[in-house]
Amino acid sequence: MTGLPSTDCLIVAVATPITPELHPDSHRLLRRCRDLMADGCDGVTLFGTTGEGAEFTVADRRGSLEAVLAGNIDPRSPMSSSWRGRRSISVSTAPC
C-alpha cells in the first residue's frame, strides 16, 4: 500500500493492570513495560489507546507514570500519557 508512513519502530499500547481496589497497579505495570521493552518494543503508550485511561484519577495516572519513569524505562522511548484537567500532565516524545 502506498502513501503510508514507513517506520522501523514498534510502539505498543499497554493495558493497565489494576489492584483489587480498582487503582492502577504500578508495580505490575512497570514489570509489563520492562517485559515489552525486553521483548523488542521501542516504546509503550500508557493510558489512552486501550480506553481505560479515563477511568483513573489524575493522581492514579501520575503515580503510575512516575513509577514507570523511575523504574529505568528510558524516558526517551516513545511514550505518551495525557489527560485534561486543572492538574493535568502531558508527556510525549518524538517518534523513533
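Second entry:
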Amino acid sequence: MDWEYINLKTQEDRLHFLEDHGFNFLIRETYWGEHVEYTPLYYACIKGEYDIVQYLLEHGASPTQGVYDDYGIRFDSPWGYATGHKNAELINLIKPYIK
C-alpha cells in the first residue's frame, strides 16, 4: 500500500495514522511482478522519511526485521538498506537501536 493510496499525503497525516493504528501492519507492493511486504520502518527508510523513521524506532520498531517476497525469502531489513546504500543519515538514526 502506498501512503497516497490511503490518502496520507502529508507527513503529519502519516504520523497521526501510525499513532492511531500502530505499526503492526505490512505495506504490500508489486515490484517487478513480485509482491513484496514491507514494514512501515523499511518503507519510511526507502522513501527518505527520516522523521517517521525516528518516530518508529522510538516506539519499538525493529531495525533488523526482515522484508520478504512472495516466496518467504528475506531480502533486506531497514538496517541492511541503510548500510547497503551507505546512507550515513539513516545509519546514524538506526545504529543506536541495533541490539
